[in-house]
Every structure is written in structure tokens, then in C-alpha cells.
Design brief:
This is Methyltransferase type 12 domain-containing protein. By secondary structure, this protein is of the alpha/beta class. 26% of the residues lie in helices and 23% in strands.
């Protein structure tokens, strides 16, 4: 599960390297979901709290700066992992972490 999958760049790379892997993305932008779907990628808009499925890998890249409650976000991600699962994260700009509410129009909240 790639959270904040955008147009599916990471999902596409996973499918190229491991075609038998069932890669799914989570995204809130309808335009990006449509773009990913045009490339045959599975990207959906769902609330993290409603996802019951467990995953071997949960990833996110450059998403943390858009999250209003990082601890709640991490708890939600950890709930999605299988017991032996792996959380992969990347932030391109550590300075983004100093003020997570700096751009309220791009800040997402979790219950």
C-alpha cells in the first residue's frame, strides 16, 4: 500500500520489478487517481481508518508534511501492516516537518 500514491510512480516501479505483486495506492486527488488508472494502476481514495486489509509493505513519500497529526498517521499506517510487515517512508525536505500546518489546504486529518 502506497499512501499518497499520486500518479502511481512508485506503484509502476514495483509492478515492473515484481509483476506478481498486488500493488495498491491510496490518494485523495481524483485527477491523480484517474491518471494512475490510465496506466493500469490500482489507486483508490479511502479513509485509512476504513481499510481492513493488511499489507506486507506500507509506504509513503513526501506525505508527512501534509499530515496534521503525525502520531495518529503513523498509528494508522502501523495498523495496516502484517505482523512481519515493513514501513517505508521518505521525506524529500526535512524542513517541511517544522510546521506541518503551514499549508492548510494540503493538510489532511485522521480521526
Amino acid at each position: 500500500m502506497d499512501v499518497g500514491a499520486g500518479n502511481g510512480e512508485l506503484l509502476k516501479a514495483v509492478q515492473l520489478l515484481a509483476p506478481n505483486v498486488n500493488a495498491t495506492g491510496l490518494e485523495t486527488s481524483p485527477m491523480k487517481i484517474k491518471g494512475a488508472g490510465n496506466h493500469g494502476l490500482r489507486v483508490v481514495d479511502r479513509d485509512l481508518a476504513t481499510i481492513e486489509e493488511k499489507f506486507d509493505v506500507v509506504s509513503f513519500m513526501n506525505v508527512l508534511s501534509h499530515v496534521s497529526c503525525p502520531i495518529g498517521f503513523f498509528k494508522a499506517l502501523m495498523r495496516l501492516l502484517k505482523p512481519t510487515g515493513c514501513l517505508f517512508m521518505c521525506t524529500g525536505n526535512a524542513a517541511d516537518l517544522t510546521d506541518p500546518g503551514q499549508n492548510p489546504s494540503q493538510t489532511y486529518s485522521l480521526p
